[in-house]
Amino acid sequence: MTSAEHWLSIVGIGEDGWDGLNHEARQSVTSAELLYGGARHLGFISASGASATRIPWPSPMAPAVQQILTDHRRQKKVAVLASGDPMLHGVGVTLTRNLIPTEFRVIPQVSAFSLACARLGWPIAETVLITLVNRPIEQLLRHLYPGQRLVIFSEDGSTPASVARFLTQSGYGASKLDVFENLGGSSERNTSDLAASWADKQCGKLNLVAVLCAPDSSLKPLSLAPGLPDDAFDTDGQLTKREVRAVTLARLAPLPNQTLWDVGAGAGSIGIEWMRLHPSCSCIAFEAREDRAARILQNAAQLGVPTLKVILGIAPATFANLGSPDTIFIGGGVSNDNLFDACWAKLSPGGRLVANAVTLQSEASLVARHTIYGGDLMRMLVSRANPIGGSYGWRPMMPVTQWTVTKP
Ligand SMILES: C[S@@+](CC[C@H](N)C(=O)[O-])C[C@H]1O[C@@H](n2cnc3c(N)ncnc32)[C@H](O)[C@@H]1O
Asked: Of the four, 99, 133, 170, 368, which is 20 to 30 A from 314 by CA?
């Protein structure tokens, strides 16, 4: 089937406008009855190029997206213009989410990401793409490593200066920034500088930022492997220590696209390390105390996972109206049977539950549940070498009993 036979065509368009469209894209636009797009993109299509009714994106876009799907169901021939590759952080993602592939045709144009890599001679497969369009800047922290190449989609003309300031504050002021404005168009422009020297330079609205990450010599980059140093987290003492944390994460066994509930989250370290493992891993932290809930959010932002969600209140009452997680960690309230029953009921079939106990009472609860539900019990006895006089001696930490169980 060609694009002209589809009721919904999603056409990528670059800054070279109509000239850059291939035959299939042009045919979709000329045969459309309704043509949706941003004012700039619609301006690229001459009156002779399309007889369709033109509908500029409203702000916010959501009602128009619904309207497109309605038009499509009424078998109106709809073409939607989107910048670059519509499936790369573009409207194509939203429009196709609930359709089957035979219902639409996406015609990609070269993305701004590809153009930036082409200009710099960067291998695309070794370059990380991040979007700051409607997303918090703290997510950059998870991607800052010596020599890492980043391409960052900008929210607006002030984004390059915000990125430069953020990198400098995060110990990456020595990174080289290349800002590209209007890539692929006649007004394309490239400005380069070190992050620390960028100051407040403003750019055109359509821009992206390419970063070659270089840390200050004093900075110790944090690994993505679980078991970050304890002092990477702000804490009031309620912290799963790094050795136990690393083993706990291994037992939680995160996979991309999975959700963790971190119940009794304390400083949030388990959920934060879960989310650092893969950008598609998500976490809801449940915490009863307001000061701790605030600290979890602060730790999450500082460790590059600002989208970690915190629910304040007494679990399990706070579980109402939430979907089922793939994995649950119980770090607080382990001896509370009511809490465990609610966790078990909410956990997805085939999901894992891991619980850590330090007190005899909570350990007794885990032993009792192990008898009923099976799973693995183990105990960790960790000692750290500490200075004693001029020598070192072992300082044992409190033993931690860990129960891991999979829901049938
Ligand atoms: C929602 S994303 C869409 C990206 C698009 N799907 C693509 O493949 O290029 C929008 C962001 O992409 C970047 N961008 C898109 N076209 C660009 C261009 N021609 N020049 C510079 N940046 C561009 C800007 O950072 C802009 O904020």
From this structure: 368
For 35-74, write each residue's pLDDT tens digit.
999 999 999 999 877 889 999 998 888 888 888 888 877 7
- Ligand 1 centre distance from Cα of residue 15 (Å): 10
pLDDT tens digit sequence for 159-170: 999 999 999 999
**Is the confidence at residue 4, as pLDDT, over 60?**
no
Closest residue CA from atom 14 of ligand 1? 112
Residue 274 Cα to ligand 1 midpoint, Å, equals 30
Q: Which residue's CA is minimally distant from atom 10 of ligand 1? A: 153
Burial of residue 337, with CB atoms counted within 10 A of its CB: 0-12 exposed, 13-18 middle, 19 or more buried:
exposed
Q: What is the mean pLDDT of the chain?
A: 95
Distance (angstroms) between ligand 1 centre and the Cα of 408 equals 45
Tens of pLDDT, residues 324-377: 999 999 998 899 999 999 999 999 999 999 999 999 999 999 999 999 999 999
- Pocket (CB within 6 angstroms of ligand 1): 15, 83-86, 88-90, 111-113, 133, 153-154, 180, 182-184, 206-208
